[in-house]
Specification:
The complex is a heterodimer of chains A (about 375) and B (about 140).
Chain A: E1 4-11, H1 23-38, E2 47-50, H2 55-62, E3 68-70, H3 78-91, E4 98-105, H4 123-127, H5 136-139, H6 144-151, H7 155-169, H8 183-188, E5 191-194, E6 196-197, E7 206-215, H9 216-219, E8 227-236, H10 251-264, E9 273-276, H11 283-290, H12 299-304, H13 321-324, H14 332-344, E10 356-363, E11 368-375
Parallel strand pairs in A: 2-3, 2-4, 9-10
Antiparallel strand pairs in A: 1-7, 1-8, 4-7, 5-6, 8-11, 10-11
Chain B: H1 16-23, E1 28-32, E2 38-39, E3 54-58, E4 62-71, E5 82-89, E6 94-97, E7 114-121, E8 127-133
Antiparallel strand pairs in B: 1-2, 1-3, 4-5, 4-7, 5-6, 7-8
Classes of the chains: A alpha/beta (about 375), B mainly beta (about 140).
The structure holds zinc ion.
Chain lengths: ~375, ~140
């Protein structure tokens, strides 16, 4: 246990295409919804963490005078790291009530600061950019042919990741894509960067989310049952996907996942619900293996055989994931929102008696990871 | 490929030797004098043991195709489809590059196929190391 719980959680009022809201307003809309969820006022917040926008900008926009801020920005899993850092801050008395916000006008591009590309003198600018990568669809995807050759993963098995997640999305009224799809649909969708087809790549949408954390002791006095944070982990590996030590496994996943499960004192069989940040279809495969739910090379068949699908033994990405639910760019917040809903028992595709949820995030292209274990009981 | 529009690297003091090497037709790597680790990208210390005693040497230019994607979307400097590859150098380190001189298809781009470095001049300062199938070497 960590001694800290989530007492407020919400996404933006709308998700998907929100051209009438700027990026910072997406943060604020989610924050106001989370405050309402927690029955708190803005004056109750004394800690602020965010990524994408600066914590200074968010605190000022919302009218918060914080005694603690965290602007850790390591990509889409930054919010998992904020949770971990907030736990330490609350436990050490630096603040009592932390607001973590995310908002991203990923699709409509309203009020979004210019994308900070890697300059030509950075290591990425010198040793990757000249060879023509065009963002995540050509970089995050680079390791997978190596994995396919080493472990015999088939194109059909990779496509099944998208098929299964659409099954979950079909039960979720807020999901961007809800129509069921087949392996053929995936393999016949437009090729983006071989071997990845359009339906194996994440959405690009607008949205936001926010979490409010406080100590276990105070957490019982809120409108919703506390979602206890029982274990967390974080790590980074490399900003250059070409420099991963092993293209078939994420070191950051392994380190963050191991730390979170160890702190939580849980074994794999204790996990009722799993979220693995899925920017692309291979991410859940890497996540299942690097977390130790599957042996090396077995996650593709594990998913294909229905184990992570509705009714399966290990419900995975039950909101539909970045492939079907939403993906604004920094998806980690939405993965945690789904873990909170599952533990509260309020998810659209609710898993029966979900007591423990493990949520694994990725940042950059296998560059960083954060892992959070949530529980209905404080342990 | 029309390469004139490639986003070109801007060398730093720590990487100068690498780009000087490619200008002269050499693929330069670094080796730790203390623990013998060979590493890339360039830095003036060993990432394995942190020793500052390191040497620059000229690599063989032989590599294998470790992984890749074939980008289908238009890029201002490339004629799609084109491969973006991670090659594994004979000396151990891996680097991103392009495999040229063969069809940009899964059939022609076989994983672990042997490659040789080729140097493609971009301007007076920058020459990029690209790779082509070795063909005669197995
Ligand atoms: Zn050394």
């Amino acid at each position: 246990m960590t001694g800290v719980a989530i007492v407020g959680a919400a996404e933006t009022t709308e998700l998907g295409v929100i051209p009438h809201m700027s990026q910072i307003q997406l943060h604020a809309d989610a924050a106001l919804n989370a405050l309402k969820d927690a029955g708190l006022g803005i004056a109750d917040i004394d800690g602020v963490a965010t990524a994408g926008e600066s914590p200074t900008g968010i605190a000022h926009y919302l009218g918060i005078t914080p005694t603690w801020v965290d602007g850790t920005s390591v990509g889409g899993c930054s919010f998992m790291l904020h949770v971990r850092h907030a736990i330490a801050a609350i436990n050490s008395g630096q603040c009592t009530t932390v607001l973590i916000t995310h908002g991203e006008s990923g699709r409509s591009n309203v009020g979004r600061g210019s994308f900070r590309g890697m300059g030509a003198s950075t290591l990425t600018g010198q040793f990757e950019t000249p060879y023509g990568p065009m963002g995540p669809p050509t970089m995050f995807t680079l390791p997978v042919l190596r994995y396919m050759k080493d472990f015999g993963l088939t194109h059909e098995q990779l496509a099944m990741v998208a098929v299964v997640q659409r099954q979950w999305a079909s039960m979720n009224p807020r999901a961007s894509f809800r129509d069921l799809i087949t392996v053929d649909d995936v393999l016949n969708s437009r090729m983006i960067a071989y071997p990845f087809h359009l339906l194996e790549c994440c959405l690009v949408t607008d949205g936001g989310g926010a979490l409010i954390l406080t100590s276990d002791e105070r957490a019982k006095d809120f409108p919703n049952p506390p979602v206890y944070l029982i274990g967390t982990g974080e790590s980074v590996e490399t900003p250059m996907v070409s420099q991963m030590a092993d293209l078939t496994s994420s070191r950051a996943f392994r380190v963050a996942g191991f730390a979170a499960m160890k702190e939580a004192g849980i074994k794999h069989k204790d996990v009722d619900h799993l979220m693995v940040y899925d920017a692309f279809a291979h991410l859940p495969i890497y996540g299942l293996e690097d977390l130790g739910f599957c042996e090396r090379g077995e996650a593709g068949s594990f998913i294909s055989e229905g184990n992570t699908a509705p009714g399966g033994s290990l419900p995975l990405n039950t909101n539909g994931g970045g492939l079907s639910y939403m993906h604004s760019g920094m998806y980690g917040m939405y993965a945690m929102q789904e873990s909170v809903r599952q533990i509260r028992g309020t998810a659209p595709a609710q898993v029966d008696n979900a007591q423990v949820s493990l949520c694994l995030g990725v940042g950059g292209m296998f560059g960083a990871s954060g892992c959070v274990v949530m529980s209905r009981a404080p342990h | 490929m029309a390469n004139s529009k490639r986003p070109l690297p801007q060398p730093t003091p720590e990487t100068q030797h690498f780009w000087e090497g490619t200008r002269n037709g050499e693929l330069r790597l670094q080796r730790c004098d203390a623990c013998a680790a060979v590493y890339f990208p360039p830095r003036p210390f060993c990432p394995e043991c942190s020793s500052r005693m390191v040497s620059v040497f000229s690599a063989s230019g032989r590599a294998t195709l470790h992984s890749y994607v074939i980008n289908q979307r238009p890029h201002p400097a490339f004629a799609a489809p084109y491969s973006i590859a991670i090659v594994e150098l004979e000396e151990g380190p891996r680097m991103m590059s392009n495999v040229i001189g063969c069809p940009q298809t899964p059939e022609a781009l076989e994983l672990d196929m042997p490659l040789n470095v080729v140097f493609e001049k971009q301007n007076d300062d920058i020459t990029l190391p690209l790779f082509e199938p070795a063909g005669d070497r197995t």
